[in-house]
Amino acid sequence: MKTETVAMILAGGQGSRLGKLTKQIAKPAVPFGGNYRIIDFALSNCANSGINDVGVVTQYQPLVLNDHVGNGSSWGLNRHNGGATILQPYSSVDGEKFFKGTAHAVFQNIDFIDQKNPDYVVILSGDHIYKMDYEKMLDYHKQQAASLTVGVMPVPWEDASRFGVMATDRTDRIIEFQEKPDNPKSNLASMGIYIFSWPRLKQYLVDNQSKNRQMEDFGHHVIPAYLRNSEAIYAYSFEGYWKDVGTLESLWSANMEFLDPDHDLNIRNRDWRVYSKSPNTTPQFLTSSAKVKDSMITDGCYVAGEINHSILSHNVKVGKNSVITDSFIMPNAVIGENVRIEKAIVGEGAHIYDDAELVGTEDDIAVAGYGEEIGGYSDEK
């Protein structure tokens, strides 16, 4: 059966800049906003955009991510003709087992895409926070008769070297591209969202592989090859909220922004919902000593302390006389009594013992890693 569009979510990245938070889980599986994981946004965008065939390409520490995505049922993607499929590296004829880059990950999954026989492939990153209607971008791709359309938006000049940046002509055709340059010529950044006409992309990947040419990464290899061959590459401007949460500071600030009821992401909009796999847990419980101000407290939490402008994910425990301010606490963390946490991220399953402190600044966020213990007996080991 023919499918017009297949989405491939690249979710295999380690996210090394998140340090202790990604030592045991892939970056797209990192919790966000109390009820979500980062990959939920790309998956929800697919579901809301009417894209029902989704491949989720995993590699680094995939167990939590695989369990979270499952068959896509939490996003309404578990369909007879479609659905979400986990795609992991496998040993090929030439002995290759791991993906060498973004384009190589798609090359290794050509058979999966060809089973769907699509006209278009939407390539997505699994580690950005945003809402976007991919159908509108696909309509633009068709109108321009493009071989490739790149989702773009301007970023601060000081951040431009972290992205692929480009120059366009008056028709929004891309005429120059730099991948994470030391000295960027532009601040018009790629969002890591691509729409390819599949037959053309497949030809590039297969032909270059047969000729032992490098075609491993979209930014370093595929887009430059398209430019050299004068392919029709267009920029699609996105004007909504979009955030790359690839650093501790950006992850923290995105969560703090999330607390704003007037946040541009508009998480409460029922016409474009962000779905997730929800845990089956108890309701939250606030004791008589609890004080909560300007915060999100999700299901399963037990709070006996003071919470100010913070997010508590599910099943977090906070003891008496503890004060949490401007912080994001991930699921199943345990905070003891008389603890002070400020401008911090506490990882999943971390334990902050009685009388400990975890205090950072906006430029240097304090972090407790995945399952880390701070204070108490852990300091004596």
UniProtKB/TrEMBL annotation:
Enzyme class: transferase
Taxonomy, superkingdom: Bacteria
Coiled-coil annotated spans: none
Keyword tRNA-binding: no
Annotated ranges, domain Nucleotidyl transferase: 7-258
Domain Glucose-1-phosphate adenylyltransferase/Bifunctional protein GlmU-like C-terminal hexapeptide, residue spans: 289-361
Entries under Gene3D superfamilies matching the protein: Hexapeptide repeat proteins, Spore Coat Polysaccharide Biosynthesis Protein SpsA, Chain A
Pathway entry: Glycan biosynthesis; glycogen biosynthesis
InterPro entries: ADP-Glc_PPase, ADP_Glu_pyroP_CS, GlgC_bac, GlmU/GlgC-like_hexapep, NTP_transferase_dom, Nucleotide-diphossugar_trans, Trimer_LpxA-like_sf
Keyword annotations: ATP-binding, Carbohydrate metabolism, Glycogen biosynthesis, Glycogen metabolism, Nucleotide-binding, Nucleotidyltransferase, Transferase
GO biological process: glycogen biosynthetic process
Catalytic activity from the UniProt record: alpha-D-glucose 1-phosphate + ATP + H(+) = ADP-alpha-D-glucose + diphosphate
Pfam families per the UniProt record, alphabetical: Hexapep_GlmU (PF24894), NTP_transferase (PF00483)
GO molecular function terms noted in the UniProt entry: ATP binding; glucose-1-phosphate adenylyltransferase activity
Site (Could play a key role in the communication between the regulatory and the substrate sites): 59, 98
Protein residues bound to alpha-D-glucose 1-phosphate: 164, 179-180, 190
Enzyme Commission number(s) from the entry: 2.7.7.27
UniProt record similarity statement: Belongs to the bacterial/plant glucose-1-phosphate adenylyltransferase family.
Quaternary state and interactors: Homotetramer.
Role: Involved in the biosynthesis of ADP-glucose, a building block required for the elongation reactions to produce glycogen. Catalyzes the reaction between ATP and alpha-D-glucose 1-phosphate (G1P) to produce pyrophosphate and ADP-Glc.
Family matches, as HAMAP family: GlgC
PANTHER family in UniProt: GLUCOSE-1-PHOSPHATE ADENYLYLTRANSFERASE, GLUCOSE-1-PHOSPHATE ADENYLYLTRANSFERASE-RELATED
Listed name of the protein: Glucose-1-phosphate adenylyltransferase
Organism: Alkalibacterium pelagium
Organism placement in taxonomy: Bacteria, Bacillati, Bacillota, Bacilli, Lactobacillales
